[in-house]
Amino acid sequence: MNILGAFIKEVKENDMLWLLEAKPGLFAMVEDGNENSFIPVWSSEKEALENASEDWEGYNVTNMNIAEFVGWMSELHSDEIGIAISTGEEGQMFPIPALSMKQVFVGPEIDVEEDKRLVGEDYYDEEWAEGIPDNWEEEFLDNLTDDED
């Protein structure tokens, strides 16, 4: 299973993920070579604890439930901060934009009024626009590939 798929499966099973926190509301961050910022997250407390060293020594391991995490994604997107899923391999991270991470857990948000405006009221078909099928996650995850495979 790919990195993202395994992460999502474990987080959903536990209804939480893990972060490193310097003080309440101040979380560990990483930057890529282009100075893009990401908040690293782990699917288990053990993995987070293993990373609470060196630059993050003294940080506390904390958890966050999925609902709170998903609610936070729009704010992170506005602040141009993404999410970095730890691969567990020598500190490597798998970066994901915050809104993409939100969609992984709740699916795409549908703005009916915006859709009607874009296609025109006369052409808008409510049956066609009912949304995403219930099993969209499985198909989405099955179509993901990563360099590990």
Mean pLDDT: 81
Total domains: 2
How many distinct beta strands? Answer: 7
Overall form: elongated
Please tell me how large the radius of gyration is: 18 Å
Task: Outline the low-pLDDT stretches.
Answer: none
Strand content: 15-25%
Distance between the termini: 8 Å
Structural commentary:
The strands form two sheets. This protein has a four-stranded mixed beta sheet. A three-stranded antiparallel beta sheet has the order 2-1-5. Helix 3 packs antiparallel against helix 4 (98-106). A hairpin with a 5-residue loop joins strand 3 (30-31) and strand 4. The mean pLDDT is 81. The protein has helices at 3-14, 45-50, 66-78, 98-106, 112-119, 136-143; strands spanning 16-23, 26-27, 30-31, 37-41, 60-65, 81-86, 93-96. The protein folds into two domains: 3-106, Uncharacterised protein PF11572, DUF3234 (Trna Endonuclease, Chain: A, domain 1, 3-Layer(aba) Sandwich); 109-144, no CATH class. It is elongated. The protein is an alpha+beta fold and 149 residues long.
Brief account:
The protein has helices at residues 3-14, 45-50, 66-78, 98-106, 112-119, 136-143, and strands at 16-23, 26-27, 30-31, 37-41, 60-65, 81-86, 93-96.
